[in-house]
Specification:
alpha+beta, 6-stranded mixed sheet, 4-stranded antiparallel sheet, 25% strand
Length: 432
């Protein structure tokens, strides 16, 4: 087990066993009361934002969703601005809200306005089912955005936002970050350099026994491109003078990865494979075509895959082993592999674990129980990974639900209140 993962799990156990309730101060009690009283309006805000389709490529929808939250932040005294991306990137841009003051740590709060659901996606925009709601992006992560607003509103009502330094950044392309990343995430990185702590409100994960969990680490994401060539010829000559062809070579390589590139926390997935004598892959739209005949040895295979790792050392070991396997060609075949990094790793650091400790203490003091740590392998990629190397970070502070990225995506409406209470108390204590 990687040391960082083991440390995370040990700290989770210690937090769960050792945190004791210290109670809330009068102002903290008021903060919690404000959140509870506003719960019906929080649900209404979630519904209004969810009824707007804001798939990453629906630029107008992303901007419209941003306006819903911008009005809320304006009402709380934040200075808001919309940051456009270059038109050629095909992304809507980001909403930034800021206030500055001399108190406590400088916080950067992260959310995102886009969803994976484009305008033709199946599934309802919003359906209320008692204490649960189903809809596109209700958990990932419009529910998290609402948690941010509910927490900040309660702090404002209690007079606890005065003289604090808090920046809110709701990105418009988290689900499919625009290229080049140096442009689409430039503002986020610059804001992180002006902050001390980053808190991200991706959906919360519920652990065993219903325990709340937060994220102190995430694996990096990357891709691999495997291109294989074979000697085209009559199928009667396969295994002999004509060689093995591209399909057998690709199969050998991929099975070699499966058997020999094995480490805890490391995964690689060949998401698309095309093989034959006439292959075309459309990178921009992630689809392609292949043609061939059963009596002809295939001369081309194209594989595009996903690679996830805990840290750069693990990445480098995986790259070296995969290149070694690729280089062991079958007769009559050749292959090459290239790698592209996407999201950097969010390492499990002492600073991140300290934030979890403070968050868990706030939860216990509010009567909501201790908060554990999500193993880094249990989460996908997220915006916070671009800035976690710069400042202490904690993620997964949003609403809880399930079936994310599917037509059945849903959110537990009661979690809006619970998550907002935890977040507001943490923000209050960090900014004293």
């Amino acid at each position: 087990m990687p040391r960082t993962l083991a440390l995370s799990l040990v700290l989770t156990a210690l937090l769960s066993a050792g945190v004791q309730a210290q109670g809330l101060s009068p102002i903290e009690q008021r903060i919690g009361d404000e959140i509870k009283a506003w719960q019906p309006e929080a649900i209404n805000l979630l519904e209004r934002s969810a009824r707007i389709n804001s798939g990453t490529l629906n630029l107008a929808g992303v901007r419209a969703t941003g306006e819903v939250f911008r009005k809320e932040l304006d009402a709380l005294g934040f200075k808001t601005v919309w940051i456009d991306m270059p038109q050629a990137m095909g992304r809507a841009g980001h909403l930034v809200a800021n206030r500055t003051g001399p108190k406590g740590k400088r916080l950067l709060l992260l959310g995102h306005l886009d969803t994976v659901f484009e305008t033709d996606a199946p599934g309802p925009l919003w359906e209320r089912e008692g204490e649960r709601a189903r809809g596109q992006g209700v958990g990932d992560m419009k529910g998290g955005n609402v948690v941010v607003i509910a927490a900040l509103r309660a702090l404002h009502r209690a007079g606890a936002l005065d003289d604090t330094s808090i920046t809110v950044l709701f990105t418009g392309d988290e689900e499919e970050a625009g290229y080049p990343r140096e442009v689409s995430r430039r503002d986020m990185v610059e804001l992180a350099k002006l902050s001390d702590v980053a808190l991200s409100f991706e959906g919360a994960i519920t652990g065993p026994g219903g325990q709340a969990m937060a994220t102190v680490g995430r694996r990096a994401t990357a891709t691999f491109d495997l291109d294989v060539k074979g000697r085209q010829g009559h199928s009667q000559g396969v295994f002999g003078s004509a060689g093995f062809g591209a399909v057998y070579e690709a199969a050998r390589i991929l099975d070699g990865f499966r058997q020999a590139v094995v480490e805890p926390g490391l995964t690689f997935n060949p998401g698309v494979i095309l093989g034959g004598t006439d292959v075309a892959f459309d990178e921009a739209n992630a689809k392609g075509t292949a043609a061939g005949k059963t009596n002809v040895i295939a001369n081309t295979v194209t594989v595009r895959g996903d690679l996830r790792y805990l840290d750069y050392a693990q990445r480098d070991r995986a790259h070296a082993r995969m290149r070694e396997i690729v280089g062991q060609h079958l007769p009559g075949a050749s292959a090459s592999i290239t790698f592209r990094d996407s999201y950097p790793p969010m390492a499990v650091t002492p600073g991140n674990l300290k934030l979890l400790e403070l968050y868990s203490q706030a939860s216990v003091d509010a009567g909501l129980g201790a908060v554990g740590a999500v193993p880094p392998t249990a989460r996908g990629a997220g915006d916070i990974q671009f800035i976690a190397p710069i400042i202490d970070s904690l993620d997964g502070l949003g609403a809880s639900g399930g079936a994310a990225h599917s037509p059945s995506e849903h959110v537990d409406l009661g979690s809006l209140e619970r998550s907002a209470v935890r977040a507001a108390l943490l923000i209050y204590r960090l900014t004293r």
